[in-house]
Model the fold of this input.
Amino acid sequence: MTASESGPVVTRGLRYAFGEHVAVDGLDLALAPGEVFGLLGPNGAGKTTTIRVITTLLPAPPGTVTVAGLDVARNQRRVRRLLGYVPQQLSADASLSGRENVALFARLFDVPRSDRSDAVAGVLDAMGLTEAADRTASTYSGGMIRRLELAQALVSAPQVLVLDEPTVGLDPVARSGVWDRIHEVRHETGMTVLVTTHAMEEAELHCDRVALLHRGRKRAEGSPAELMAALGDEATLDDVFRHHTGDTLTPGSPAEEGGLRSVRAARRTARRVG
Amino acid sequence: MSVLPAAPPAGSADRFSPAAEVALLVRRIGAMCLVELQKLRHDRTELVTRTVQPALWLAVFGTTFSRIHAIPTGSIPYLDFLAPGILAQSALFIAIFYGIQVIWERDAGVLAKLLVTPTPRAALVTAKAFAAGIRALVQALVVVVIALLLGVGFTANPLKLLAAAAVVVLGSAFFCCFSITLAGVVLSRDRLMGIGQAITMPLFFASNALYPVDVMPTWLQWVNHVNPLSYEVDALRGLLIGTPARLGVDAVVLVVAAAAMIVIASALLPRLARG
Done:
């Protein structure tokens, strides 16, 4: 797996500001086809802003972000067709069945009517949800909802799967269940996975490479093993995280405010997962 | 492991032609309307609870005022005059709070997911507007049944009934987009709930839903003229009970108002998504 300018996701000098606050400052990333790439960093580091720009939720400055070689600023709809996106919140519609949740996204991604039923059944099966497919999502456990959201994101056969804190609030069994499914799908389809996480042990276990962001800037990049080795024999990814980010945020800074929003969203998700 | 879809499906989102855009819009409207019907199939509680108020308006207010003949409606029984107004009101009450659902969708991450599909913002708003129309239409059917049980003489002409259904959908689409626009401005559920409650009754009382325009004070007649609910009620009354109505004007006003509000709501959707 090697990164190139026409790779699945490339950012070059990406800068994004909310008013006076620079959320992402000159970020260079190049994902390789088929890899799991982790964006790590404390709250307010710029991870979510980066993902929102890549997924077209925020306007990308022209020439700074490409997905599969397409400039995101100029090809928003074509780029969206190549992406599967799972936000941090539990976003499946609890009042619809699992099958209806997935079928909605099959329709929104224009999966042809003749293939739709098979495509929906296929991703539900891949996520281990066939038996629960016709129950409303309100009866699902947190892990099942996450897998349902993965099924929604995968029904359009995306080239890049973007996951924002996919295991927040899940118990260890549900976490490994979600990651097992992600790896199975990746091996079967060769898709690239871009993931944000606070869980260093997950990044170490599941990411081929990670980039560590702090205050909008990339502080380190490489495989977890490389980053840990660079710090010492006994170093963990937690140590790498602390080494590059420190322990504190500037009180009252916009970064801290962004963190509050993130924490609130994470807690809301954790409550729903129960 | 089961077979996963192999490659992104080719869709009209990649072909930028007017015909393809219209086809995409129709597909998105269909998808969102289907979701509304699926939600109603799973949970009919809201359908039942939302029936209470129009039933009270018709059964209590309507029958009482029919007896005391306080409101001049010519040769038409007051209950018949009132029924299309209550029908429009019940649709209004559904649509005007649709923005709250969109704010919930933002908080739950649903809106972000929808915005990362190959769907133009305007198509997404239009699809949601028509979905609100479908939900309002189902509610309107319940109100029609109640009205018929109370003896209201609605037309049996299927074309007029279809046209009335289209009017309900159009009116609801306008108020749904109005609600999404408000959501895009205030950004919070609590504020929108307050605003929604503050404007629904004035919209209702400043329309021809309860009484003819002729009996209104002049200032209220002016408000009535800029109130889309009045055009919806006028069209419904003309189609369902055969009162004189300016159907052409009503249709044009509703279509233009809905289209304008779709444009405004679409422009505010990214702000709402970021909020």
